[in-house]
Amino acid sequence: MALSPDICIRGAGIVGRSLALLLARERLNVALVDTPSPSKGPDVRAYSLNGAARALLQDLRCWPDSPAVTPVHQMQVWGDHGGHLKFGALENGVEELNWMVDVPVLEERLAEAVKFQPHIEVVHAPLAAPLTVVCEGRASQTRAELGVCFEINHYDQHAVATRLNCDRPHGGIARQWFGWSQVPGLSKPQAEILALLPLGGEGGREVALVWSVHPRRAEELMGLPAEAFAAQLEQACAQALGAMRLSSERALWPLQLARAERWIGAMPGAAKQSFALAGDAAHAMHPLAGQGLNVGLADVAELVRVIRAKEFWRPLHDMKLLRRYERARQAEVQAMGLVTDGLQRLFAQPGPIWQNLRNWGMRGFDRSGPLKNWMTQQAMGKPAPGSD
Predict the structure, then answer these.
(1) Are 285 and 295 in contact (CB under 8 A)?
(2) What does pTM read for this prediction?
(3) How far apart are CA 168 and CA 215, in angstroms?
(4) Between the chain's N and C termini, which has fewer beta carbons within 10 Å?
């Protein structure tokens, strides 16, 4: 690689590595900043990826094999008082709705691909470049140094995540429950969202749990012995998969809706150098719709498309060029954030009036036909049939 890279990417997670590999295909020299971070224990994450994300990773030849990838044939959602939704692949004319992907395996595939790409140099400190892309995650230090405001709305919920082995096969079904729990010290019941996501390939009996609960409830769940934790989970999901046993440690993180005030700008004190944000450095949303990494990889695809289509005379640091990326992504990300935030807030409202309204809406939506199909197509990362 030349001593001066064309693009410096700060952050070597899934978004940063995917972006580096795609830009290297455009014969751009990329410095990928990989800063070692202290070990946080076992990684229990598993992402739900839609068709667009899968196509991008397959194009990079980084799509994992089974059992690290589990196809989702159906999604089932239960409300707090009889409401029920089902989304099926067959009724939408596709083989799968989406895929659950084991995060450590995907990261390893991307890291291997980076090693064999001569246009990528992995570095441990940022290098000056016409364009710097910040992919450091929601706690990005670079974003703070650039003076970009990160507007955060904290939910009164933390996510408890782990993996479990179940007595019954998951059947390729992603299951989600909206419910309530009584938290010691609080007078009113608190809303919670429980998701069981299929892992281990076709016919598997392993699931990933994401349980969004009040912070006090999260602390209680984290402190329970494994058997007691599994027992509470079985009760909360009405033993949908029979008896459960933890197969990993538990992880915990706070939930928030966040977005950067701006996604692009000039690098302070540097002539002819600009920056752009992508992935969680630009936005964060509630995990209830499972769209976090899909949105981040859509950032990657759009930035590469904008760079590929640029006029030959326009430099990479050109602000008019970068505004094309910012405009294209901000609107879509804001829309997805409003949807997830609206659902979280709707199911967090106590009282019988709200309960009846929610479940009336769920039953009506399940029978709505075109609206349900449109929403399913959006979740799968593709336009509905007949749209432009």
Answers:
(1) yes
(2) 0.86
(3) 30
(4) C
